[in-house]
Design a protein that fits this description.
Layout lengths: L4 E4 L3 H12 L8 E4 L3 H11 L2 E3 L2 H5 L4 E4 L6 H8 L14 E4 L6 H7 L5 E5 L9 E7 L5 H12 L2 E5 L5 H9 L1 H18 L4 H22 L3 H8 L5 H11 L2 H19 L2
Parallel strand pairs: 1-2, 1-4, 2-3, 4-5, 5-6, 7-8
Antiparallel strand pairs: 6-7
């Protein structure tokens, strides 16, 4: 059962990546193999995407050019025990797949121990990848070569932007962009609630909140303004915006976001221990 791309695990993020890769025709369904323990999940993926499926992680780990590890970090040790046998197969080192891991908190050291002499790349995508608007940080392992990085860039480029960072920064990436969509979603919900409190109908308040955040992000990206510059442009003397900002500062809005990133960063570190 030979493939160009294998996935071990295919939850929300794994499926997001898979769907975009197939939609952009970077991989043909016949060249993709997914290993999933749940029979119903295997049947769903096979029917929806026309891919090959299996329940054998070891088969997936030796059946492709690229192995995307997309399981929960909490089950990594169990899966790694199965995959320790892969390094003892009859395949030459050059025939073993490049391992690309999106597991939060699992460091390259543990990944490389599980995959022997295989090149490993650690990656941290985020949920906007589902609509092709994600951003992914990648960090190469000790024996990963430029061509391996290009493979990873191709995979994650299908779901958004890609940046390369040294591995010691991946946990910080997890705290910021990995967990960040939840912070932004919470902010949008709170903005909408504020609009409702001020008398707006819920549907209108939600639309205004979402449009405001989306438009502001696009403006910052396209204008290359520093966020502080944009804030100053919107804030007129004695106006409504400075009144709102004053309240946010009193409530510790910026400190809360900074501390949220730091808390997620520390949790990512804990998951790797």
């Amino acid at each position: 059962m030979s493939s160009k791309l294998s996935l071990i695990g295919c939850g929300v993020m794994g499926e997001a990546i898979l769907s975009r890769l197939l939609a952009r025709k970077l991989y043909h369904p016949d060249t993709v193999l997914v290993s999933e323990l749940q029979a119903t999940r295997r049947e769903f993926l096979a029917k929806k995407y026309g891919i090959k499926v299996t329940s054998d992680n070891r088969a997936a780990a030796t059946a492709s050019e690229v192995l995307l590890l997309a399981i929960k970090p909490q089950v990594f040790d169990t899966v790694a025990t199965e995959l320790l046998e892969v390094g003892n197969t009859n395949l030459e080192e050059g025939q073993l797949p490049v391992v690309v891991s999106i597991l939060a908190g699992v460091p390259l050291e543990r990944l490389e121990a599980a995959f022997g002499h295989q090149p490993v790349i650690r990656a941290m995508p985020n949920t906007p990848a589902t609509v092709g608007a994600g951003i992914t940080a990648i960090a190469p392992g000790k024996i990963a070569q430029p061509n391996h990085l290009e493979l990873a860039r191709g995979i994650f480029g299908a779901v958004g932007e890609v940046v390369e960072v040294p591995e010691y920064l991946i946990d910080a990436v997890t705290g910021l962009s990995g967990s960040g969509p939840a912070y932004v979603a919470l902010m949008i919900e709170a903005l909408a609630d504020g609009g409702v409190a001020a008398g707006l109908p819920r549907a209108i308040a939600s639309k205004l909140a979402l449009g405001t955040v989306l438009g502001t992000a696009q403006l910052l990206q396209q204008s290359e303004l520093h966020p502080a510059q944009l804030k100053d442009r919107v804030t007129s003397p004695g106006g409504t915006t400075i009144a709102g900002i004053t309240h946010l500062e009193k409530a510790g809005f910026r400190s809360a976001l900074i501390e949220a990133v730091q808390a997620a960063y520390r949790r990512s570190q804990e998951l790797g221990n």
